[in-house]
Amino acid sequence: MQADVVVVGGGCVGASAAFHLAQLGAGRVVLVERGQVGGGPTGRTVGIVRLHYSHEPLVELARRSLERFVRFHELTGRSADFTRTGFLLLAPASELEGLAANVALQRRLGVRAEVLTPEEVARLDPRLSLEGVAGAAYEPDAGYADGYATAAGFAAAARELGVEVWEGVAAEEVQAAGGRVTGVQTSRGPVACSRVLVAAGVWTAGLLRPLGVDFPVVASREQVVQLAPPAQFGRLEVVLEDLSLGFYARPETGGTVLAGVLEEEPEEVVDPDRYNAGVDWAFVERVGSLWSKRYPSAAQAEFRGGYASIYDVTPDWQPVLGPVDGTDGLFVAAGFSGHGFKLSPALGEELARWVCGQSLSVDLRMFSLRRFSEGALLRGRHAKGLLG
Ligand SMILES: Cc1cc2nc3c(=O)[nH]c(=O)nc-3n(C[C@H](O)[C@H](O)[C@H](O)COP(=O)(O)OP(=O)(O)OC[C@H]3O[C@@H](n4cnc5c(N)ncnc54)[C@H](O)[C@@H]3O)c2cc1C
Fold this sequence. Notes:
Elements: E1 5-8, H1 12-23, E2 29-33, E3 48-49, H2 56-70, H3 72-76, E4 83-84, E5 87-91, H4 93-108, E6 114-116, H5 118-124, E7 135-139, E8 143-144, H6 147-160, E9 164-167, E10 171-177, E11 180-186, E12 189-192, E13 195-198, H7 204-208, E14 218-228, E15 239-242, E16 247-251, E17 257-261, E18 269-270, H8 281-294, E19 302-313, E20 320-323, E21 330-334, H9 344-355, H10 370-373
Parallel strand pairs: 1-2, 1-13, 2-9, 5-15, 13-21
Antiparallel strand pairs: 3-8, 4-8, 5-7, 6-7, 10-11, 11-12, 14-17, 14-18, 14-19, 15-16, 16-17, 20-21
The chain binds flavin-adenine dinucleotide (FAD).
Flavin-adenine dinucleotide binds next to α1, β2, β14 and β19.
């Protein structure tokens, strides 16, 4: 068959791109997902939607994406289950300068964000123990959303606009000749096309390798724990990321919280097709202890389960976006390093513009694959790359 564009990967990024390609009138668009749309890491995301970043294009994408999460129903006819809670980033003295610079950047771009003193943080949530906290960033408009609902919502809306969504179909090879994309060999047969967007998470590397393209990425197993604080604690009301202790927590249904760690290195490099998707008891104890330090009145939190999924981590914890040198018509959007969900609604539109040859409204050129071979790695203002 013949298509105009093939998108490989039905995570939040590929599904958003497919939807926006249809909106732009890109012609016959096929979204190829080897499993189920949203069934990969996207469906396991913690879904934190905050706007704190060091690089202007990421703040801008996060800001525009937040607007889309809020009006997701208007956009797609479905819900992304966005819940507004506010976002609190606790920092030790060593991180305060970077935090303040990021907040200044956000404010310049029209984001509601402020730097709080420990006293102001204590007023926001008096249950917090603020040992080791020199200050914080606070965003009242942030919150969390559902990864599966977001990808499935974009894919369903894309289908209504004419996109063919092929689930249970693998892209086996991206084909090129004379320096141009010619098609994609799939498990359902060949698709001839001149433009391909590979948004296949950590599996992107394997699809690009036969074309002689080196995509530096590792799969890092990342665990998430669900805790149920004691009844007298009440609910966690805010999304919390804690640079002092190195963990995060966000409210979950039934008064529980989802929590995990913030690391400077990948937690555990694994084979993305063969890893333990459960949670280790030592990890539960570690996260439980960090949680108890911050919320001593909830130290008796009960373990309610957990899971592991993978981050696709690049050398600088930043994604690779845009055209691939040497193969006209080949585009990539992968390597989100654990922070791609919150960017996906607006990013999909920029990717669609790129693929259609239109000018971008956010300058994303700094995220080219070329930066690795040129040694131009991106550095954020925080030690933990996950913060971007
Ligand atoms: C535990 C966890 C917590 C997270 N928390 C947050 C958070 O709080 N906030 C945030 O912003 N981000 C978070 N993230 C990161 C975020 O979820 C990811 O960056 C985002 O979901 C990546 O989406 P994606 O579309 O790039 O890739 P994926 O979700 O990896 O989707 C890629 C898809 O490609 C498909 N595929 C692969 N190979 C092929 C092939 N050959 N043919 C066809 N299909 C193929 C896969 O099946 C998969 O469905 C978290 C991630 C994890 C794992």
